[in-house]
Every structure is written in structure tokens, then in C-alpha cells.
Amino acid sequence: MANTKLWDAVKELKTASYKWVDLTHELSPETPHWFGFKPLGIEKLYDYPEAPMRVYQYSNPGQYGTHVDVPLHFNPNGRAQAEIRPDEMVYPLVVIDKSKEVEKNKDYVLTVDDLKAWEAENGRIPQGSFVAFRSDWYKRPAENFDNYDDKGIPHYPGWDLDAIKWLVEERNVGTIGHETADTDPGFITSSENIYPYPGEKYILDQDRIQFELLANLDQVPATGAVIVCAFPKLKDGTGYPARCFAIVPV
Fold first, then answer.
1. Alpha-carbon gap, residue 47 to 122, rounded angstroms
2. In contact, 111 and 165? CB cutoff 8 Å
3. How would CATH label the architecture of 5-249?
4. Where do the domains of the chain lie?
5. pTM of the complete model
6. Does residue 1 carry a pLDDT above 90?
7. Which residue has the higher pLDDT, 100 or 193?
8. Is the pLDDT of residue 195 over 90?
């Protein structure tokens, strides 16, 4: 008799005992994206009634909207997108909620102390997990995502480098994610440092992937959910829009 254990698991996950939360921004020219990129381009190639189908051609940078970054993005010797294994698309999900702090301080930086405080309340961050920084930044209009001041300096939250190092070296997490377009806070990425993306470079240098511009983390609990982030098997790819969703026990 065939083993249907996995089929039964899928059937169970689609019952009222679980909810499925889309963590992805809708992809369009209005989608929030890194300031250095042009909006999504759309060209209609075929349409009815002249043709039997409707087809569009899209043009966009790899790191557009909700997306994955793979090691090759910041490391010339890192793995490309096609080398990422399918099991690296599914993780236990840990959500670190700092939305209230970010509301008061747009330059908020998530620290090791924040992670230790989270563990004191929720338990140890599991090995191989996806740790997401919830800031509720996804709720901002795309045109104000970088939150520039009068001097043109962006102000948005991010990870402290030591916090990412702690997650990798002390907890051996699988990956990290956040709602902003950068891993590092705005005042770091806009600085005159030789390398203004220390957090992003570190996590990718550890042969880990990461995810940016997540949405709806406020609909997911601190613990207990599973996250799935799927993306194309792109040859030599450094990153690409991803469809991320969480499966949450009710």
C-alpha cells in the first residue's frame, strides 16, 4: 500500500486548524523596491481577440519587491541561485516584533540584547530557523519607504551586525528576513563607509540566503509557524522576486 503520510499532512494543513498568510508584496511598477532600481517594466506581447492568449514581457532587477538574496549577490565566490537547494526554501519561522520601537525610532537597530530578551520570553531560537525582523515597515507607501530627511539621508530600521553574527554563530539559524529593502539600517547604508552593507555582506558570506521586503509579519505569531519562500532556479542568479507565505496554527 502506498505511503500517503505526506498527502495526509497537506490535507491537514488545509483545514481550519491552520491559516496561510501571504508574506509577499504584490508585484507591479508600484511595488516597494531599492532606490537604485527602476520600477517593474511591463510590455504586452500578445492579446485577444487578435491572438488566442494574453502574454506580457516583464523587466526588473533581480532584487525587486519581496525577494531572495543568495551568496553570489555580495560574494564573488558564493553560490548562485540555481545552486540553492529546495530544502532551503522551508523553515520554522521566528518573528522578532520590534514594531512599537520602530514607530518611536525610525533608525531602530535590532540588537543581540533584543534577541536575548525574545528568548527569555519565548524560548531558545531553534537551529535552522528563519528569523524575521518585524517592523511593520511594509505598511508604508512605496514612495516613502526610504524615509528621507531634509538632507537626503534615509531613515529606516535594520539589523545590527553583531545580532546577525550571534544568530549565525550562537544559534546556527538558517536564514534571516526583514520588511525593509536593506538588511542594514538607513544611516549605515548611506554612510561614507568603504562597505556600507556590513550585515548583508556578513550573512551572505556565511553561505546563507536572506529575504527582503517581506509583508504581513504582523499576522504571524512569534513562534510555531512555518515559512515557505519559493523562487526560480535561475542560472548565475544573485536574487529574484520570491513568493513567501507562512502556515500558522490557529
1. 53
2. no
3. 3-Layer(bba) Sandwich (3.50)
4. 5-249
5. 0.96
6. no
7. 100
8. no
Average pLDDT over residues 195-200: 92
Coil, strand or helix at 186: helix
What H or E segment, with its residue span, contains residue 240? Answer: strand 239-241
Give residue-wise pLDDT tens across range 169-181: 999 999 999 999 9
H-assigned helices in 123-206: 161-171, 186-189, 198-205
d(CA 174, CA 172): 7
User: CA separation (Å) from 70 to 52, 61, 128, 189?
Assistant: 38, 14, 16, 19
Instruction: Judge contact between 218 and 99, C-beta under 8 A.
Output: yes
- pLDDT tens-digit series, residues 86-102: 999 999 999 999 999 99
CB 178 within 8 A of CB 186: no
Q: How far apart are CA 248 and CA 195, in angstroms?
A: 38
8 A C-beta contact, residue 176 and residue 122: no
Grid-cell match 546556527, residue found: 172
